[in-house]
Amino acid sequence: MHCPFCRHPDSRVIDSRTTDDGLSIRRRRQCPQCGGRFTTIETASLYVVKRSGVMEPFSRDKVVVGVRKACQGRPVTDSDLAVLAQTVEETVRQTGASQIDANEIGLAILGPLRELDEVAYLRFASVYQAFESLEDFEASIAQLRADHGRTGARVPASGETDSQPR
């Protein structure tokens, strides 16, 4: 690590701590040449392997941008999206791999997005899983309804609103 003050090619670590999110390490360093102190943040590299074979660094921002489109017009806040992106990153990092397929990131998005907003989930899933017919949507909706039945929650039928009597 080069000193940012005098560009000396070495530094001494004075203190190391993990950050609050546990995903990186904060190191306090001192230059043996000029005595200047500075802080570095170190994270493990995580690369996404796209379908074309191209590799690029993982980006929470890209997760947010992709999911934001599915959440358009839905009661989902920017902080909800930030938490979702963090959850996805934590899930992906827990695999222990330094390279992960873009497909795996999409799968990691589906679960938290479903918990956040089911309509946004259907929108995202329809593009991500390449729905080709109404039957694909119907099957996904049927699965959502079946899962709600297990938890005791009720999903309104088509055309029915929450305010209508049951």
UniProtKB/TrEMBL annotation:
Keyword Transcription: yes
Any GO BP: negative regulation of DNA-templated transcription
Domain of life: Bacteria
Keyword NAD: no
Free-text function comment from the UniProt entry: Negatively regulates transcription of bacterial ribonucleotide reductase nrd genes and operons by binding to NrdR-boxes.
Molecular-function GO term, any one: ATP binding
Family annotation (PROSITE patterns): ATP_CONE
Zn finger (unnamed) start-end: 3-34
Family: Belongs to the NrdR family.
Cofactors, names only: Zn(2+)
Pfam families, per database record: ATP-cone, Zn_ribbon_NrdR
Cofactor note: Binds 1 zinc ion.
UniProt domain ATP-cone: residue ranges: 46-136
Keywords from the named record: ATP-binding, DNA-binding, Metal-binding, Nucleotide-binding, Repressor, Transcription, Transcription regulation, Zinc, Zinc-finger
Name the record gives this protein: Transcriptional repressor NrdR
